[in-house]
Amino acid sequence: MRNPQALRAIREMRPGDKVFIYHSMSDAAITGLAKVVSEPRPDPKNAKLTVVDFEFLSRLEPPTTLREIKETGLFADWALVRQGRLSTMSAPAAVIKWMQKRYPKAGI
Questions:
Q1: What's the CATH code of the domain at 87?
Q2: Structural domain includes residue 107
Q3: Of 56, 100, 95, 102, whose CA–CA distance to 75 is shortest?
Q4: What is the pTM of this model?
Q5: Which residue in 30, 34, 40, 52 is deepest, having the highest Cβ count within 10 Å?
Q6: Contact residues for 58 (Cβ-Cβ < 8 A; gap 6+)
Q7: How many other C-beta atoms can be found within 10 angstroms of the C-beta atom of residue 89?
């Protein structure tokens, strides 16, 4: 990823952080949960970029679509709502709480 906002978010990730897996093709949605398992490091193919490793934790069924997130009207200031194609960003605490209620057994 070359977007400065996405790179900043990756550089802030730490092992143990949980992340939502967001699929932005066709029906954009949060489809799963993963965990960061490495410190951020330079991309071996391009030192200007940063990468981390993830461990897949679970699918979120049913997925939470971007449309559903927008329709709540609660998260208009979240980057995902403002820039739906931005690949990596932090999730506000209010979003995390909302997702925990939607998926109480997922360990979010």
A1: 3.10.590.10
A2: no
A3: 95
A4: 0.86
A5: 30
A6: 32, 33, 106, 107
A7: 19
